[in-house]
Amino acid sequence: MLTVVIFSFFLLLVAAFPHADVLKRAPPGIRFQTPKGTHPSLSFSKLAETSHNHQRIHGVRSKTNARSVAAILGAHQRQVGGTGYENITVTNAYGTQYATEVTWSGVPINLLLDTGSSDTWAIQRNFSCVDYAGEPVPQIVCAFGPSYPATFQYGETSPPQHMFIRYGDGEIVTGPMGFSDITLAGNLTVTKLQVCLANNTYWYGNNVTSGLMGLAFPSITNAYIGPQYEHDPGSQVEYSPLFTSMVSQGKSRPMFSIAIDRNSSSGVLAWGGIPPVKGLDRENDASVDMVITNLIDIPETAYEYSFYTIIPDGWDYDQKTDIKKYPYIVDSGTTLCYLPPYLASAINQAFNPSAVWLWAYMAYFTSCDATPPIVSLVIAGKRFLFNPADLIYRDMVDPETGLCMTAIASGGTGPYILGDAFMQNALVVFDVGHAQMRFISRPYY
Ligand SMILES: *[C@@H]1O[C@H](CO)[C@@H](O)[C@H](O)[C@H]1NC(C)=O
Ligand SMILES: *[C@@H]1O[C@H](CO)[C@@H](O)[C@H](O)[C@H]1NC(C)=O
Ligand SMILES: *[C@@H]1O[C@H](CO)[C@@H](O)[C@H](O)[C@H]1NC(C)=O
Ligand SMILES: *[C@@H]1O[C@H](CO)[C@@H](O)[C@H](O)[C@H]1NC(C)=O
Ligand SMILES: *[C@@H]1O[C@H](CO)[C@@H](O)[C@H](O)[C@H]1NC(C)=O
Ligand SMILES: *[C@@H]1O[C@H](CO)[C@@H](O)[C@H](O)[C@H]1NC(C)=O
């Protein structure tokens, strides 16, 4: 009798999280967490309701990919002495960041979309742009879009708080915090949101965006009490960031979704449901537990990310199947997919002709008219087929060899990344309320 009880208890634990063993093998400086859903579960068909609250996102190029997960992991691994993602920052031409327009207390403004951080900020008019040494340089060097012309709609926080955040390759943004209304998707207004109007930045901009919209969790917000030059952990205070506030104000169901378009470097972001995009195969959907990847062990405390992560069943490629389990971060700001080295190598060999590793780029290259293998990622038993056309970047040509970059790169010790090359093949639902990541296939034919 007792055995039965113990046995079923054990089963329950395993059933509750089937991949606990995978998550224990985290590389140095990485921690995985499995968040708990806060909302009663709903059937997928109910969840897959089309949302009327959606907005376009568009790709912007800049001189850095500092905010791509690959670059952030690279900088982090170098600091903690890991071996994954070395030198990926040198492939800086290959990150696409997505921008979207919001209305900030009545003023339209373009913000970068970031699912890895939580603070929302805009650059204020008289900001000080500084170089890596903190020395003032002309504002134009920071390359922001138009600065936000006004002050906080509801005044500053009391007592005064400031934001201090350090991004991937050392970019720093700081400024006072206060409260303003932010309108998304044309008419969805989050009232009295705590935001920052940055007045001091070390930033590599794109001349388009004027700030950033962070869609991660409250636990990694970066607000501090006290003067702006002080940000020790003791003075840090957590606050309710954009998406959390939107849900608590009843403006959105606790999920958002992103569809990245093919070819056009644009897409759609929907709040509370899925966007009305063409070509969804609603028969082919998958739901998996959401895992959160946290970066830890960093000397600077004010440098935190948490990434939406999944553990797929495995990969099918070239009539082979690989079912080893690894965590993969889902990131629209990273162009390529980063896989375990042995698997990246095997898939690249399956191109005809085989792709070769070029050190200068830390990526694989093959003939620009090569035939790619048939590759699919299997998630919760469902197959998500990569469009062969997405597996070779015909505009990323190495001038020395005339070869083109492939979409499958090596991710060292991980965690691995599903970038745009994957996201173009599926609508991705960040179902925060049920702690699930959901995918709906977008076949290319
Ligand atoms: C990283 O870049 C440095 C400097 O360019 C080089 O010496 C080093 O070998 C590179 N590391 C790897 C793993 O490529
Ligand atoms: C901002 O700069 C303008 C001109 O450079 C100046 O007139 C104004 O007083 C400044 N405002 C603040 C708040 O510093
Ligand atoms: C930024 O704002 C804070 C708080 O209002 C102020 O203490 C600081 O001097 C300002 N810094 C710059 C560079 O304007
Ligand atoms: C405003 O919201 C309603 C319902 O939430 C939606 O049907 C409508 O399309 C939205 N209008 C715009 C311009 O976004
Ligand atoms: C932004 O504009 C400045 C000035 O026109 C230019 O020098 C810089 O190259 C531009 N940066 C980007 C990323 O487009
Ligand atoms: C994408 O671009 C390729 C080559 O530039 C073209 O052949 C293909 O038709 C385009 N696909 C779509 C859906 O526009």
Give keywords:
single chain, 445 residues, mainly beta, Cathepsin D, subunit A, domain 1, 2 domains, six-stranded mixed β-barrel, five-stranded mixed β-sheet, 7 helices, 31 strands, globular, disordered N terminus, binds 2-acetamido-2-deoxy-beta-D-glucopyranose, Pepsin-like_dom
Low-confidence stretches: 1-15, 89-93
Secondary structure tally, helices? 7
Structural class: mainly beta
* CATH topology (level 3) name of the largest domain: Cathepsin D, subunit A, domain 1
Report how far the terminal alpha carbons are from each other: 56 Å
Largest sheet: 6 strands, mixed, barrel
Principal-axes shape call: globular
Give the percentage of residues in beta strands.
35-45%
CATH superfamily of the largest domain: Acid Proteases
Helical residues, percent: 10-25%
- If strands are numbered along the chain, what order do they take across the biggest sheet? 3-4-10-5-9-8
Specify Rg, calculated over alpha carbons: 22 Å
Question: How confident overall, as mean pLDDT?
Answer: 86
How many beta-strand runs?
Answer: 31
> Any idea how many domains?
2
For the record, the CATH architecture of the largest domain stands as Beta Barrel
The kinds of small molecule bound in this structure are: 2-acetamido-2-deoxy-beta-D-glucopyranose
CATH class identity of the largest domain: Mainly Beta
